[in-house]
Amino acid sequence: MIFVKRWDIAELQLNHTGPRQDPRLYWQGGPALGRSFLYGPQLDNGQLRVRRDGIYKLHIQVTLSNCSSFMKSIVSHRATLTVGICSPSSHSISLLRLNFHSGCTVASQRLTPLAHGDTLCTNLTLPLLPSQNADETFFGIQWVHS
């Protein structure tokens, strides 16, 4: 008998085409996008849904587009990136809250338990625009333990 261990993993790119009317960042993944992939979790309207209970390593990096030295002073007072479980709503919780301070990029990672059906939402303070460059803005999870 052969046992195949299934690894749930996703590395996503930003899916953004115009002005932001919603604080949520929408993600996309798949082989047609080059370095982006999705094995196990699924995308539901640009948000990542977990399909297996376990402990996951979550990572994110967001770089603001057209971030100049002038913009850095504005950003430092109000720009925030948050990652949380937004569904099911019965246990919505915040997982990461990152402030840009005086820079144009934030990045973080952490281990966190997630349950089947949890949907991860990422929010960026409006009206700031994230860079669409896949080397500057990305989001992903990796299952590490049940």
From TrEMBL:
Gene3D superfamilies: 2.60.120.40. The gene is CD70. This is CD70 antigen. The keyword Protease does not apply. Its main location: membrane. Homotrimer. Residues 8-144 form the THD domain. It is a single-pass type II membrane protein. Belongs to the tumor necrosis factor family. GO terms for cellular component: extracellular exosome; plasma membrane. It comes from Pteropus vampyrus.
